[in-house]
Amino acid sequence: MIKSLNILLIEDDAIEVMKFNRVLKTLNLNHRIIEANNGEAALDILKVKEITPDIIILDLNMPKLNGIEFLTILKNDGVLKYIPSIILSTSSNHKDMLECYKLGVAGYILKPLKYDDYVDRIKKLLEYWSLNELISQ
Hints:
By secondary structure, this protein is α/β, with parallel strands linked by helices.
């Protein structure tokens, strides 16, 4: 059964956030999106523990606390480290990918240039995680 997800979206580019939300609306997906514009803001959201996300989707290149710095802190937390984290980035830098996988990301997706390809990738990503058995906090 496909379930609705609580998704923490960590992205500093407002256009990318709008694009992500537009894809969900276009696909009639009822996932709850919690937005943070950098890793620091995301950690604040996670500390409050009002909503524990089922998955985290984050960009790498952000101000204050970038994606890799955020992941390092997240994966060192005894509880938060179990939340699947998926990188959604324009960086195809092999060093970035390797570092993210070393830190324990659940996936690394390159943002495609064409909107239709972006829609397809987000659809597949969310379908996959909607079917997964996730650990409840």
